[in-house]
Amino acid sequence: MRMSGAPATPAAGRPTDAERVRSILAAAHSMTVVTDGTHTEVRHLDGTDPLGRLHLHPAEPGGEMEERPSIRLEFTDIAPTPVRDRVRARVTITGRLLTPYGGQDAEASTCVEFLRAVLETPDGRRTSIGLGELEAASPDPLAPYEAGMLTHFLDDHSELVTLLLRLVSPQPTAGLVRALPLAMDRHGITLRLEERRGHRDATLAFPSPLDDVEQSGAQMQALFSAARRRSHRNTLPA
C-alpha cells in the first residue's frame, strides 16, 4: 500500500522511491538494528549493501501467527555537507527473523521474512515499498561516491557552486545567505539555498542521466558551461 497517495511512477528525471531506498542502503555507513527490544548500532557498512548480509524473503500466509522474533532496520540519510536540516530521508525495514541475527559479524548471514520498507522524507511524505519493488530497483550509480564528490566540490571548488546559481529558476533573492550542494544522483545536482528566513532546494538536471560515475565529470562540466553562457542579467543581485 502506498501510504502517501503519491503516484508509483515519479516525474521524469527523478528516482523512484524504491531506487532511492536502494541508494540510501548502498551508501549507508551505519544502521540501527532493533530485535527483541534491543538496539544495536552497526557501523562500518561502507561499500557493503546490508541487504547482502540480510536476505529478505516474502512473508508467507499465516506466518504472522508463528512465534518469530521481530527485526527492524533503521537508516538515516544525512547530507554530507553542512546544510541546514541535514536529514534528507529515513528508511525503516521491518520483518521477522528466520535465522538468528548475525550482528556485526561480516561473515554472518541472516534471513528475514520481509514485512515492509518505509521511506520518510522531510516534507512529511511517508511511502511504503514492497519487496518486489525493492528487489527490482537498483541503487544510483553515484550513491557510494556522492558524499566524497559533494564535499570535494564544496571544499575545493566553492566558486563553482556560485556559478551554478545562474541556472536556478526562480533566481535567488537578495535574502540569500549561502548556497551549498545538498545531493547528487544520476539525474543531476541539488543545491540548498539558505535564506534569512527558511530555505529551498533547486535541482539542476544533467543533459542526460548517468550510467556510471565516470560520466559525472563531463555532465558537471556541461552544467558549468551552460551557467557561463547564461546572461549576466541572471546573476545574483548586488
Q: Helix tally?
A: 5
Mean pLDDT comes to 86
**Rg, alpha carbons:** 20 Å
* Biggest sheet features: 7 strands, mixed
Poorly predicted segments: 1-12
Q: How many strands?
A: 10
Give me the secondary-structure category.
alpha+beta
Distance between the termini: 50 Å
Q: What percent of the residues sit in helical stretches (DSSP H or I)?
A: 10-25%
The shape is elongated
In short:
This protein has helices at residues 17-27, 131-136, 146-156, 158-164, 216-229, and strands spanning 30-35, 38-43, 54-57, 70-78, 87-97, 110-120, 126-129, 176-185, 188-195, 199-205. It is of the alpha+beta class and 238 residues long. Strands 1, 2, 3, 4, 5, 6 and 7 form a seven-stranded mixed β-sheet that branches.
Question: How would the blueprint of this fold be written?
Answer:
Blueprint: H1 17-27, E1 30-35, E2 38-43, E3 54-57, E4 70-78, E5 87-97, E6 110-120, E7 126-129, H2 131-136, H3 146-156, H4 158-164, E8 176-185, E9 188-195, E10 199-205, H5 216-229
Parallel strand pairs: 3-6
Antiparallel strand pairs: 1-2, 1-4, 4-5, 5-6, 6-7, 8-9, 9-10
Helix pairs in contact: 3-4
Pfam family, one: DUF2470
Domain DUF2470: 147-220
InterPro entries: DUF2470 (IPR019595), Haem_oxidase_HugZ-like_sf (IPR037119)
Question: Would you write up a description of this structure?
Answer:
This protein is an alpha+beta fold and 238 residues long. The chain contains 5 helices and 10 strands. The chain has helices at 17-27, 131-136, 146-156, 158-164, 216-229; strands at residues 30-35, 38-43, 54-57, 70-78, 87-97, 110-120, 126-129, 176-185, 188-195, 199-205. The strands form 2 sheets. Strands 1, 2, 3, 4, 5, 6 and 7 form a 7-stranded mixed β-sheet that branches. Strands 8-9-10 form a 3-stranded antiparallel β-sheet. Strand 9 (188-195) and strand 10 (199-205) form a beta hairpin. The radius of gyration is 20 Å and the shape is elongated. The N and C termini lie far apart (50 Å).
